[in-house]
Structures
1.
Amino acid sequence: MRSTARRVAAVLAAPALTLSVLAATSSPASAAVDPGPATAAGTWLVGQLDDGLLLSPYVDSEGNPYPDFGASIDAALSLHEVGAPAPVVGGISDAVAARVDEYVTGDAAGDPDSTYAGATAKAAVLAQTAGDDPTSFGGVDLIQSLEGVVDTEGATNGRIVDVSTFGDYANTLGQSFAAQALDTAGSDLADPVTDFLLDQQCAAGFFRQSFAAIDAADQTCDGSGGQPDVDATSLAVQSLRSQLDDTDVAGHVADAVAWLKTAQNANGSFGADASLPNANANSTGLAGYALFLSGETEAAQRAAAWLRAHQATNVAHCVYYDAADTGSLAYDNASLKAAQAGPMDDQLRYTAQRATAQALPALRAAQTGPGDPQALFAAEYVKAGGKKPVGVVQAAPGEALCAMLGEQSVLGYANAAGEGHLPVLIPTKTGTSRVEVANADRTFGTAEIHALGAKKVRFALEKTVAAGKKQLVAVRGLAPGESLSIVVHWPKSGSKQTSFVTAVQANDQGRFTHSFKVPRQPGKGRVVVTGQFGNRKNSKSFTVTR
């Protein structure tokens, strides 16, 4: 059934959706926050819900897809952060509550009397965010269950631990949710859980994702070789924001934020860790929003620009994405390209769902352009044929742009500085191409590209010149103002072998005249005239007589 999805999608798409704007502009030239990307992503995400849940592409023995409870909770939390109406978030919370046992325990999957610590903590945060009672969520007291999986003695005091026959897979991500949930609930275990979370931060500022072995004497990040993890660091920053009145917590968060800034790539993106170093939307979204919440406006804006440039967006005649996929965030460059090949298949859509569910709030830092966008092409002439980049300036960082020439429609994205480069295929013959450039709002400019095709340059000279007299070369038929060069090859026995005339231009009638004195030694000379490009040339010989 998709009735619930359609209903809440309609609510989200309505004008009632308001995005909170907390980020200040980074400079007087910066523009205001643009709610469009987050609205489009949120609308698409809600449309993916099936009775309040995101479904995985994997099916049970009866062919029914398994719900992805974790991604569904991510979606609810993200939609809440961008100001989605309460019924949207509440609908997801209700759907998770109805099947909460399947998420927080493995009882139905052959793991009796189990409690999954991270899932329990995440579900508790969902209940609190949606305004539900976490002590009676689908009949489960999530706070009591969570407290029951917290170690309270020795080096592991405050550590969450899975109760499962399959082993303990609890990690810093779940610990972050646990610290948030227990602090919000006013639990006596909030402090030790928070302290253990802070122990997972190394001196460099990052948080690691995996805990030390449960029996290790040293449970700290520095004491057991912790490795940097962007996702764990970002989630810790977000989860600890309710405890920033504690100066110790605030100091740890400041160190984490400082480290995140050093981990950001020049294009605004983030990779996850050493095993997943490539830029991806999940890590960029988590880090970007952590930076946004911490007041690191410029860094958050650059992350939002990278995400926006990985959002499926159709502009003008650049219809690269299936209508059902527009608004979604692609996981990485490869996923974005795959989405352009046709409607997303189940696996690609699932990847986009998970990416959008985590990255959506970071789009709150998306900016409009600093002014009216402009299309431009600097070169006066280009060689005909091949692709030439049409430039755009003052676009919104990361926004989709479309260059149109004839039947061509070239989609591109502005970078974090609001600059775009759209490679357009130019005809192979001499002529002027007028390329229209559009963004999602309108066609905002036209760039003229003057191309010069292959040509046998016309010029005249004297076929014979007396030794020591002047030769006159008269070039005609060039483009107005076209650059040209003249090379004179003298008789081999002469006093000179070669002379050059370069960096000259034809007049506005495409003409240029040059005279030179020939040597006193008789023999054959040759003149080579080359236009602005190597495929526009001609050569002629002359004789020097006594």
Note: The radius of gyration is 33 Å.
2.
Amino acid sequence: MRCTILRTTVSLLLLLAALSAGCQRPDDWLRLDGRSELRIAIPTGPLHLDPHLDAEEISNIFYHHLFDPLVFLDENLTVRPWLARSWSNPNPRTWLFNLRTEAVFQNGQPVTAADVAYSLERIRQLEQSPKQTLLSSVRSVRVVSRGTVEITTHEPYAPLLGKLSQIMIVPADHYRSRSLDETKRNPSGSGPYRLAARRGDREYLLEAVPNHWHFRRLFRRVRVRVEPDDTTRAELLAQGRVDLISAPAPGQIPTLRADGRFTAPVSPGLRLVYLGLTFRERLADGRPNPFREVAVRRAVSMALDRTRLTTGPLEHMGEPAVQVVSRSVFGYTPEAAHPGHDPELARVLLRQTWRPRGGAIELRYPRAKYFRVREVADECARQLASVGIGTTPVGVDKLSYLQPEETSRSDMFLASWIPLTGDASDIFEACFHSRGRDPNFGWYNIVGYSNPELDGMITASTRTADRQQRLELLQRILIRAQADNIWIPLYFQKDSYAHRRELIWRPRLDRYVLAFEVEVRP
């Protein structure tokens, strides 16, 4: 009897110790080949790990592992409750968010309305934050109670939830007391994973948070390897050294599909790759800028054969773009005119308007950032040369590409944009609105376009709550932007992946590869 009581007491003590330590039972972890580690290979790594100082795609992937937003967009960009279990609109300009009581940061502290308010205000006050534009509609943020936060907008603003899905909530005490240099290197959030180790900029080890407030089944570790070469990534998968890769070489996709060990999905993408032409009065070398003429920009657009770009350099991994947003984006309209491919008419227009002086214009592009971007730049240069526009492709390091000092000397460049919220306002507010008049608009207007009439239309779109009215206004903006050729849309990059057949995973429209969405077949 005494032994039985002793064994029972010991068992209870062990159970309590496990619970108090937040331990997770070994059989609760997802496992592949007996290991609870998911290995992923991607083309590039994050710029840094402060979620308020960057909006770049790969960085955002890491942010979603380490932090949580108030609301989450699923693989189809549908809004789902996340840190906020519910929300309501007492009036068209006021949003009340009720937080989950079970949500905690990785340091064990509960997520409170004060942390939410701090996170939003931190972004609004950080001059270098590219995410400020996501909060341009916000007038004030107020803590109502420990679990309720109030967000007031200047005007009724329908797409607020989509914007908030990209805003990560951080623990106020931790971030308030640390320098930006430290927060870039040492993240702290409420996400399902924490940063356990890193090897320079080539490998990151993420460790699951035991008994996470939201997830019950995770891989214990996620090892993310940065491998710029698309062929090498596919070889790593074939050799069994990684389990999931993004952007394998197109020529290897049939081979991977034929191999019974792998699945290699290809999906339509939201990423637009476009040709940017500066609107400055003079080019970087002091010459008068011919691209200020709408006829010249139209001629440039007609000189470029999108089909050739997607079937040649991209090997069918792109869809020709006739406007700056795809059909999946709210604001798309088939009414936006596109000049098409017409090199003969382009030559006619250029004979009337193009007065080149000096040498070739540099066509700048980011090395190792977009799929086959160097080959695309070379093909664009050949096509432009055929109508009399001389260009020289120049590769630029991706970490400095189109930063302020880089923009000032970029007369012609390849760039891309992903409307992560699935709303065309992502582009209009950040990229097409004039820069400088309002810090919340035009922060990424790197071509220098300015049109007060279009500014007014964009501002009006942020103050319209009615969905149909917003759609019509966004479509009018798109038609006007297309007529002015603010950007020269080239193609929407298709998204390709490959992974072990034992894994269950579906590609997302926003291209995010999220380990917590990966499952293992029973």
Note: The chain has three domains: 69-173, 201-268+495-520, 272-493.
